[in-house]
Amino acid sequence: MKEFIIKANKAVTNGEINLKDLPGSSGRLDLLCRCVNSAFFLSHDMRRDTIFYSVNYGSPNPPVALKFVGSELKRVSPDERSIALFIKKALEKDASELWKESTSGIYSSKREFRDIILEKKNEGKRIFYLHLNGKPLEDFEFKDDEDFLFVLGDHIGIGDKDEEFLEELGAEKISLSPLELHADHCIILVHNILDRLK
Question: Where do transmembrane segments lie in this chain (predicted)?
Fold first, then answer.
């Protein structure tokens, strides 16, 4: 199982989303939509072995975590507007500590970025932090029965305190390129490398 989590520093935390202006009106929700596309969509198929989390820290009610489960997703199209519409439906629900399903395979909860990562660590998942100065992903060894969580930052990053938290947690810092890449491109590259290693 491959899981991805992104800290969305400015992404809105309610359903007041202007679908005609995702970058300007919703705290770079366009970035999240592209990440969902990259995490799940293949040509004429979807990745069922993937889960994607976004933890939104924008106004008015941060944080709100969103969870997309590939094996359960239905009716979602790969375009940004369609994905944003499903995110809007999830954010219109009142978030609580329990995951609430808004549509098939899409959930929301009142959870912190660190709490989800810690939960995954306690489940025995191998934690990777995607960072420009990390070790190349191709240099790592993977076992067939391993489950992974890949931690991503948005256009702002995750911040020094969360980086310290990951270091204390023993997260492995990995790099995909000598250049700084968009988060959605990183997801595609991770999938591609793991596909080839299979």
Answer: none
**How many separate domains does the chain show?**
1
179 annotated ligand-binding residue: yes
Residue 35 assigned as binding residue = no
DSSP state of 30: H
Q: Mean pLDDT of successive 10-residue segments in the chain (198 residues)? A: 96 92 87 97 95 96 97 94 95 90 96 98 96 88 86 95 97 94 96 86
Query: How far, CA to CA in Å, does 8 sit from each of 5, 27, 145?
Result: 9, 8, 30
Confidence (pLDDT) at 24? 81
Give me the domain span that covers residue 116: 1-198
State the CB neighbour count (10 A cutoff) for residue 181. 15
- Was 186 annotated as part of a binding site? yes
